[in-house]
Structure formats: structure tokens, C-alpha cells
Amino acid sequence: MEGTKKQNRVLATLSVVGLFIATKLKFVLAIVKFAKLQTLISMFLSLGFYAVFFGWKFGVALIYVLFIHEMGHLAAARIKGIKTSPAIFVPFMGAVIGIDPKAIKDARTESFIAYGGPLAGLLSILPAIPLYWMTEEPLFALIIYLGAFLNLFNLLPVSPLDGGRIVASLSTALWGVGIMLLIALNFFIPGPMLLLITIIGAISWVTHLMRGRKKKQYEEELADIGRRIRQLSWKLDTAPVPETEEEVKEVHGLLSNRRHLERMRLDYEDEIHRISTYYKTDIKTKIIWATLYIGLIGVLAFIMISSLSILETITVT
């Protein structure tokens, strides 16, 4: 009797999942279009690792949550017209995408791309809620909890976590608060990954605090470049008309050096401007991002707490 009941529940689960996929086929095809070969290969390798160590249900739930999260970042970057590398899954470390930092011009853009991940993570949870109600399948309960927990953790205000990048539009002083929270977590739930994130976060914060010194250094180097350009310009202006091949080569060399220095000057000016303006946002932007950030934390926290009570009553195999 118990076996028949279990079999009926599995069939019901498969039917609901099949119906859901069929009705959302365009959405599924759109996700597959986003994914690249490297993404799919690394995803299935990670799935194999998780399945071996924690069981296939845990592996499927975790990969699903991570995949949708990374697709959220990719979609947000695409909306902003910023190129990214394909998402790469690393067993026991999650998944990452690569973005050229110079392609992100200000903190608002960084916040937008960062927010895309946990927002997509929240959306990935929503279908699992009615599916669990209809089938009582532990896999869906696990997806709900993992999705809420991982995305909520990712919202800690520490760079390089998404939360740190989101609050960059509010105040980078919040990174210090995030570091304190991570240090406290290391005492309660110690682990190598948590320690690594804490160290990276601390380095990022210290590096940010030294931006003023870096800007001063760039300004000094820019002044030196300007002086060298003026010297080369004076040499070119006062040089006689070249008559020999050797004199022509010398003039070409001076022109080449000046062009090189002028390119360097533009690069330094861009970097100084970036340091000076990157984190400047108006009060309206701060209010919008504070509302979105706190709201997402609240929703994910509610879902995580609610799903935890469900998981405590079932065993996932």
C-alpha cells in the first residue's frame, strides 16, 4: 500500500513538472539559448559531484537554483549592453560569470546587474511552492529552502557578494557592517568557504578605503605624463625640417612616443574620473535601491523560515 502511494506521488510529480515545462516552453528555450557549451558541461559535472556526496535530489535542487541565479545576472548585463563570459559551475564553490569591471561605468549599473541574480533566484522558487502543495514532493521543498537560503546569504552587504554590489549605490560604509556580520558567522558556523568570502570581502573593503591614495598617485603620474608630452611637443615644434633618413626616423619616433603618452593620459583621466564619480548617487537612487534591497531580503527571509519548518518534517533522499 505504501509502495503504491509512493508510486502515485512520483507519477503525480512527473505529470505536474511535465505540464509546467510544456506551458513554459518558450521560457525554457530562452534559458537554453542563454546557456553556452561551457556552462552546460560544467553544470553537469557539478551535478555529478553533488549527487555523489549529497544525493541526486540535493544536486538537482542546488544546480537549478544556481543556474537561474546566474542567468539573472546574464540577463541584467544584457539589458545594460554589457558582455559577459558564460556561467561556469565549480563544484562546492557555486557558479560565476566574468564581466570586465571597466565595462561597468557606475555603481547604479553594478547594482542593477547584481540585483538580477537574487531576483531571478526568488522567481526560481515560486513555481516550486505550488508544486510542493500539490505533490508533497521533498525535492520541491528543498528547492524552496535552498533558493531562499543561498540568495539571502548572497545579499549580505559584502563585496564580492551580490549584496555588497547592490549597496554600492547606497553607501560603501555598509561593507564594513557586512564584514562584521561575516566574522560573527565564522564563529557560529565555521567553514572554509565562509572564511574565504570573509577574507576576500575584507581585502575588497581595504582596497576601497585606499582609493583616495590611488587617485592621488594617478594624479601625480598624470602630471608627469603631461610634462613629458609638453617636452616632446616642444622638440617637435623646434626641430628643423628632416632631410636625412635618420632625421625622419627620429621625428617619427618622437611622434610615436607622444601618441603613446596621449593614450596613457586619456586612460589616467578616465580612471581618475571613475574613482571620483563611480559611487556618487542621488537621494532618489538611494531610496529606490534601499527599498528593493530590503524588500527582497524580507521576502526571501520569510520563504526560508517557512520552508525550514517543512523540511524539518520530511527526509530528503
3D structure, described in words:
The longest helix is centred in the last third of the chain and has 33 residues, at 245-277. The chain has a two-stranded antiparallel sheet. Among the domains are: 2-154, no CATH class; 212-277. It has helices at residues 2-23, 25-34, 37-54, 56-79, 107-125, 128-135, 138-154, 162-166, 174-188, 192-209, 211-238, 245-277, 283-311, and strands at residues 88-90, 94-96. It has 317 residues and is an all-alpha fold.
How are the SSEs ordered, and which strands pair?
Elements: H1 2-23, H2 25-34, H3 37-54, H4 56-79, E1 88-90, E2 94-96, H5 107-125, H6 128-135, H7 138-154, H8 162-166, H9 174-188, H10 192-209, H11 211-238, H12 245-277, H13 283-311
Helix pairs in contact: 3-4, 4-5, 4-7, 5-7, 5-13, 6-7, 7-13, 9-10, 11-12
Residue share in helix: over 70%
> Which strand order do you get reading across the main beta sheet?
1-2
Indicate the structural class: mainly alpha
Distance between the termini: 20 Å
Q: Helix and strand string, N-terminal first?
A: HHHHEEHHHHHHHHH
The overall pLDDT, averaged over residues, is: 82
- Poorly predicted tracts of residues: 1-35
Number of β-strand runs: 2
Short description:
About 80% of the residues lie in helices and about 0% in strands. The protein is mostly helical and about 325 residues long.
List the keywords.
single chain; 317 residues; mainly alpha; two-stranded antiparallel ribbon; 13 helices; 78% helix; 2% strand; elongated; disordered N terminus
